[in-house]
Specification:
The complex is a heterotrimer of chains A (455), B (80) and C (384). Chain A is 35% helix and 23% strand. Chain A is built from 15 helices and 24 strands. Chain B has a single domain, classed as Ubiquitin-like (UB roll) (Roll), CATH 3.10.20.740. Chain B starts with a strand and ends with a strand. Classes of the chains: A alpha/beta (455), B mainly beta (80), C alpha/beta (384). At the A-B interface, strand 10 and helix 4 of A face helix 1 and strand 4 of B.
């Protein structure tokens, strides 16, 4: 079926939800499209069982209130379980396709969020090694603890809610391995102090961990994973690292799950498919370039595209909420100056920028890789294939590396490995942005493609 | 409580859980072996980005277990 | 490093690199220039087809037959590593008219030296078990082959380097230098280079290169899309295409021409084509065309309707108005050679095209009379 709406918002997480609410309250006819079965995105992923959800979330009320408001708003039409696979501009309108429907609008808000950034290391493809986001999704979405002996690693404030969440629901967390130094980590808390709500939240997690005797270790990283005879994770090698992430010494820790977070990276396939202008952010992520009204740049003046949330730069839920509200108002051509919202956005942006400084990711992770380390998980391309492409086939650029080895050609179309290969081959900004060009945004069967409606 | 099968084995699940979550809760950590090197894989990103959690569901291949909600009587098999 | 070479090749795609490799065999010191990196133009969009099946008896078929053998000789020479496979081609017909036309074609092709077996419905299905029942009969071409064009180009480039050849990437040609009707070198964004022989292997942009020398090659882009499926356990065993493909290749229509082309690959993905249209260099993905390609593929192989599409990409085939390649010395400038305009057959025709160029440069007798491919056929309209 074809659906025309005044404003279409893609992504039902904090940014998209708030954009929908503000746009609708400003009088616009709004569609909110999400690929999931429920609203909430990743941040407010929930099971639908209210008691469980309350216990799993730090402040689920905020999320559930907003979700309820959006559901109740007569100007907002919800389209769930709708995965967009293509986006184009036809006759001055934006046309989005899912496998069943076609959505048409002249005003689009992109709020497609982010996913965990991965750093490869020997054994990272062993079952049991997963992103911290996966462990979080298992818990918040399905009420399942990922394993029996869980080590959490990586860097950043996300490690805490993941650890505390699993711990307080019966998970056995055998260690929280933070790459940042304790002093720097304390500096981060200084930023938190300027942000009392965040400080309280953080303190709450730490308290939980302390009560359950979960140990936090600093200036360490998981650099190798080991499988047992059945092929599943049985232990990791944890290294004491320097500020450059180089290994100084190491030890083994037995576990059946290693949940790792190295920050996030936006999934801007929708923006790329529409040729929306992107740039490389200070953390190396490719983000949508927006102005102070969250307006993105597109060559066609007849359409308006906005972006909010992680897709404009990783910054957490407060920033996403503020950006979403401003984007919604701007898309609805509201005359509301939104000064409060802009102040909130500014404050949240500063907090996010501080986090990048406090939890940097240094290049030394490249020294963890061995020739047999998998780089492209989908196509099982090992690092030695890339070095061979460099040495015997004179691959100079990430593009060469990808084309000579099949890195990035599998089902995930480079979402996991493209940034890794760009880093290993020192890709420039243009190359990184081009890596995000996926005109087929999500897989669609040939049968669905063949049947698709008139556009 | 509902149930489905994984490679013929009965797996219990709760309403609303994803296939991957139910498998993990039942300590089934390997959902497929890779097509080139036959290496075991389990859930990795958990949110539908990485395609490592692939299973075949009721005969349909390449389904992401982390995105699919369990239904009673589902026939789930390792992805090939 | 000296700015002098025996020969400069403009374009590091399959044609340019094949030509450079053939020149190194003749003992020449070559320099290959490209404004991008290796195979960054149409070559990287190629499926890797090495076909004899899609050509009627003609000079081009003679070239294709020789070139097909050239590919296998090349694999021996440089040690393979580019997924070269004598996969075989299966051409199918779904109407009586199509069947008759195909029978006539295979008979003609056989007399020109192509191994072409007429295959009835039942036998077709032993070759391709998943073929639709709507397919009546077909032909099998065991000589049809495929390679991975990126790897092939890169491997050839590496051999060229071991033989003293050089590559400069990121160098845009700004001028072709000649004196008294004799070429002497080129100017690029990375400096000037001298050579008594310059070969224009600029692919879809070879006309622009020719113009720099005051020459005229009417090469234009003919856009094509390819669908790439998710990797699947093998369903398709050959390159399979509809008999109407041959007519489309030869057609001069600007409007969209599509015909079903389906093939499995070593990596497990299924590639689906083929579309041809003259839309300049429009890089946008046209989903209407993708839909037609999907429909046509499913008509041939109904099982494909459940297979996932992973990505789609487009390439710009370089073609001349008469749909023949342009191979030979420039009629006005001695030492300037053109090896271009191979349309959708560049990969397949690369080795033999290179051979013709080197034969010409070394003033040796070629394996064929290639006056049909001469660039001179355009110079009555050349700009002064």
């Amino acid at each position: 079926m074809n659906f025309n709406h005044q404003i279409i918002i893609v992504g039902g997480g904090p940014a998209g939800l708030n954009a929908a609410k503000y746009a609708a309250n400003a009088g616009a006819d709004v569609a909110l499209i999400d690929s999931g079965v429920r609203l909430g995105g990743q941040y407010w992923r929930h099971t639908g069982d209210e008691a469980l959800d309350q216990s799993l979330h730090h402040n689920f009320d905020q999320g559930s209130l907003l979700i309820d408001a959006v559901k109740a708003n007569p100007r907002i039409t919800l389209y769930l379980e709708s995965q967009i696979w293509s986006a184009s501009v036809i006759d001055d309108s934006i046309v989005l396709r899912t496998s069943k429907d076609i959505f048409i609008t002249k005003k689009l808000v992109i709020a497609t969020g982010a996913y965990d950034r991965s750093l490869p290391f020997p054994g990272w493809d062993i079952p049991g090694v997963m992103t911290a986001g996966a462990a979080q999704a298992l818990l918040k979405g399905s009420g399942v603890i990922a394993g029996k002996k869980i080590v959490i690693g990586g860097t950043g404030p996300f490690l805490l809610p993941v650890a505390a969440g699993m711990s307080s629901h019966g998970g056995n967390i055998v260690g929280v391995i933070e790459a940042a130094g304790k002093a720097a980590w304390g500096k981060g808390f200084g930023a938190l102090l300027k942000n009392p709500a965040k400080a309280l939240e953080g303190a709450g997690y730490l308290n939980t961990l302390r009560k359950r005797k979960v140990e936090m270790r600093f200036r360490q990283a998981i650099v190798q994973a080991h499988a047992n005879a059945d092929g599943v994770l049985e232990a990791v090698t944890i290294a004491n690292i320097d500020a450059g992430f180089k290994i100084k010494s190491s030890y083994r820790l037995s576990c059946d799950v290693a949940a790792i977070s190295w920050g996030f990276t936006p999934d801007n396939s929708l923006a790329g498919a529409l040729s929306v202008k992107q740039r490389v952010n200070c953390d190396g992520a490719v983000v949508i370039d927006v102005d102070s009204n969250q307006r993105a740049t597109h060559p066609n003046p007849a359409i308006e595209i906005f972006a909010a949330g992680e897709s404009t730069g990783i910054g957490g839920s407060d920033l996403a909420l503020a950006e979403g509200a401003i984007a919604g108002l701007a898309a609805a051509h509201s005359r509301h100056k939104a000064n409060q919202l802009r102040k909130l956005r500014s404050k949240a942006q500063k907090f996010a920028d501080t986090l990048f400084k406090v939890y940097p990711i240094a290049d030394g992770w490249k020294s963890w890789i061995t020739p047999s380390t998998t780089i492209c998980r989908c196509e099982e391309v090992k690092y030695q294939a890339l070095t061979q492409a460099r040495e015997t086939l004179a691959a100079e650029t990430p593009r060469d590396a990808k084309l000579f080895t099949r890195c990035g050609m599998g089902l995930c179309q480079g979402r996991v490995c493209a940034r890794i290969v760009s880093d290993l081959f020192d890709g420039d900004a243009d190359e990184r942005i081009r890596s995000n060009y996926r005109p087929i945004i999500a897989p669609i069967t040939l049968g669905e493609l063949a049947e698709e409606g008139l556009l | 409580m509902i149930a489905f099968t994984f490679n013929g084995e009965e797996v219990p699940a709760k309403e609303g859980q994803s296939v991957s979550a139910a498998l993990i809760a039942h300590e089934l950590r390997i959902n497929r072996h890779t097509r080139i090197n036959n290496e075991p894989r389990g859930i990795y990103c958990g949110i539908g980005i990485c395609f490592d959690c692939l299973v075949t569901i009721d005969g349909v291949v390449n389904q992401r277990g982390c995105l699919t909600v369990v239904r009673s009587g589902m026939i789930v098999e390792s992805a090939k | 490093m000296s700015n002098n070479s025996d020969a400069i090749v403009i374009g590091a795609g399959i044609i340019g690199v094949s030509t450079a490799l053939a020149l190194t065999r003749a003992g020449l010191k070559v320099l290959v220039i490209d404004r991008g990196s290796i195979a960054s133009g149409t070559t990287s969009a190629g499926e890797g087809n090495i076909l004899v099946s899609d050509k009627e008896p003609s000079a081009e078929l003679t070239l294709a037959l020789r070139s097909r053998d050239g590919w296998f000789e090349l694999a021996d020479e440089i040690g393979g590593g580019f997924e070269l496979e004598a996969k075989g081609g299966v051409v199918v017909a779904r109407t009586d008219g199509g069947v008759n036309g195909l029978r006539r074609l295979t008979a003609d092709q056989r007399s020109a030296g192509v191994i072409a077996q007429d295959v009835g419905g039942a036998e077709l299905r032993t070759l391709e078990p998943h073929l639709s029942h709507a397919v009546l009969s077909g032909a099998f071409y065991p000589q049809d082959a495929q390679c991975q064009p990126m790897l092939a180009t890169a491997k050839m480039a590496q051999v060229i380097r071991t033989r003293g050849g050089r590559f400069i990437s990121g160098a845009t040609v700004t001028a072709i230098l000649s004196t008294a009707g004799r070429v002497r070198g080129i100017e690029t964004s990375q400096g000037s280079f001298n050579a008594p022989i310059v070969i224009n292997a600029g692919g879809t942009w070879a006309g622009e290169i020719a113009a720099m020398a005051g020459s005229y090659l009417p090469i234009a882009p003919r856009r094509g899309f390819i669908l790439v499926s998710a990797p699947t356990p093998q369903l398709i065993f050959h390159k399979v295409y509809d008999a109407d493909y041959v007519a489309n290749v030869a057609s001069g229509e600007a409007a969209l021409a599509t015909s079903a082309v389906v093939e499995g690959t070593q990596s497990g993905n299924i590639l689906i084509g083929a579309s041809r249209e003259r839309v300049g260099f429009d890089r946008e993905i046209d989903f209407k065309v993708l839909r037609i390609l999907a429909r046509q593929a499913i008509e041939l192989f109904p099982i494909l309707s459940t297979i996932s599409l992973l990505r789609a990409y487009r390439g710009f085939r370089p073609y001349a108005p008469d749909h023949l390649p342009i191979i030979g010395q420039d009629p006005l400038i001695e030492g300037l050679w053109h090896n271009a305009g191979h349309e959708g057959a560049g990969i397949g025709l690369a080795p033999a095209s290179a051979e013709l160029i080197v034969d010409g440069i070394m003033e040796r007798t070629s394996f064929m009379d290639h006056s049909t491919f001469s660039p001179a056929r355009f110079t009555v309209e050349s700009k002064s």
